Amino acid sequence: MANLIAQLELYLPYAFVRYALIAGVMISLCSSLFGVTLVLKRFSFIGDGLSHVAFGAMAVAMILHVTNNMLLMMPVTVACAILLLKGGSHTKIKGDAALAMISVGALGIGYLLMNIFSTSANLSGDVCTQLFGSTSILTLRPVEVWVCVILSLTVIVLFCLFYNKIFAVTFDEDFAVATGVRAKAYNFLIAVIIAVIIVLAMNLVGSLLISALIVFPALSAMRLFKSFRSVTVCSAVLSVVNTTLGILIAVVGGTPVGSTIVATDIVVFVIFYGISLLKGGKNR
Amino acid sequence: MEQIVCRDLKLGYEKTVVADGVSFTVSKGDYLCIVGENGTGKSTLMKVMLGLLKPLGGSIEFVGASARRIGYLPQQTEVQKDFPAAVKEIVLSGCLNKSGLRPFYTKAQKALAARNMEKMGITALAGRSYRELSGGQQQRVLLARALCATEELLFLDEPVAGLDPKVTEEMYAVIEGLNKEGMTVIMISHDMAAALRYSSHILNMGNDFFFGPTADFAARREGGEQNG
Lengths: 284, 228
Ligand SMILES: Nc1ncnc2c1ncn2[C@@H]1O[C@H](COP(=O)(O)OP(=O)(O)O)[C@@H](O)[C@H]1O
Ligand SMILES: [Mg+2]
Prior knowledge:
The complex is a heterodimer.
Chain A: H1 2-11, H2 15-40, H3 44-63, H4 70-85, H5 92-117, H6 123-132, H7 142-161, H8 163-171, H9 173-178, H10 183-205, H11 210-224, H12 228-253, H13 257-283
Helix pairs in contact in A: 2-7, 2-10, 2-11, 2-12, 3-4, 3-5, 3-10, 3-11, 4-10, 7-10, 11-12, 11-13, 12-13
Chain B: E1 2-13, E2 16-27, E3 31-35, H1 42-50, E4 57-62, E5 70-73, H2 78-81, H3 87-93, H4 107-119, H5 135-149, E6 153-157, H6 165-180, E7 184-188, H7 192-198, E8 201-204, E9 210-213, H8 214-227
Parallel strand pairs in B: 3-7, 3-8, 5-6, 6-7
Antiparallel strand pairs in B: 1-2, 1-4, 8-9
Helix pairs in contact in B: 3-5, 4-5
The complex binds adenosine-5'-diphosphate and magnesium ion.
């Protein structure tokens, strides 16, 4: 233990570690807030699909030598998110097939393009980085950290301002529409924000593990907590704690950051699941 | 006073037409029961009236500006069965249609929610989790939410489905009470006996389409039984 702390003291002064922690905390906070809605609306698969789209867009950005690849990834992913969530909860079946096509298509074409056009000597390393976010979080530049912090704060503020609406649209979209709440507009907002979160999260855990970052804290919180507010708060806390732990372990242990964060999330989920089973006699 | 006028509605989904030529009017204070076999388009009609679905033809007119203040008790969906939400959170969400862009609930809205929970006898459950409640309690929660959204027009889609007889009776009594206070009630029901007993008007979907006062419907049914 003392050894571990000594190790951390060694690493913390480094800017790249602090950047990683700041970006990680912000991104995981955002993703956990909206994770609750995605899980409850049975939309978690959309996070997965969109992250593959973001990967495809990123591949294209790389080929075109766009200096800031977010400029391309963000609009493409947002557009896809809007298309997918447009139908609300009613077009699920058709949506499923469309999503699978877009998602796998983007992944395949993205890799193909990178393979054909890439001039990089270490192509599989590049691809691996994008899919699993092996190192990108540890190589952030200050500008990127700022962009990440500002976008995250925007997402968090929007979530707080629209909290009641997000709850209503998540719990019962039909009721909201019938009683004259502008559910379409709020769905639209949710779609855009989720796309933003996914593009941000690509830096942290890579496109394959984004879904884990979004759904695990929410699923863990839902095991133990019973109101929307407590689930949201718990999932935010879990997500921040897990990500911080994950980054620190990864830095000290030299493991890949994204996978380590996800592993931490899984361990916590298993613990919460266990606790809920122990308590289960009463209310299940 | 007429509140809703439906003219020659054609109901359905994309290519399939479920019902055609549905015309009726609902007046203030009416208790309209929509009855009919499964699959005759009762829920579809309600969705169209609520604006959740576009009619394939015909028109719906809500008379008077405030008439669009609607309360709705939907058929329960799968999602809600294990949704982590406190009773209070759900009831409050009924007030949202009066919020506009305001981010948080006002004192008045919280008071309205508290009043409606009191009215439905669920004040003691305010902090409980929705998914742990019994079917009857859940329906009361959703009804309290609907009451937060409206003072004048309530839509109910099979409000007693899956409830035991005692709870069913209680539910009918609550709805009757609301109607007596002046709430217009439009209810889909499988339960013909209850429909005949409580409603003022009947809309029978399906082959032998009928719309009119409940007394006429009852008379026609008796006539039909004697003939056949
Ligand atoms: N979303 C839908 N898409 C296509 N057809 C539907 C949809 N919902 C219901 N239907 C069909 O419309 C008909 C009427 O359904 P519904 O209005 O739910 O009947 P009821 O409520 O009277 O039992 C049924 O044949 C049903 O299969
Ligand atoms: Mg029905």
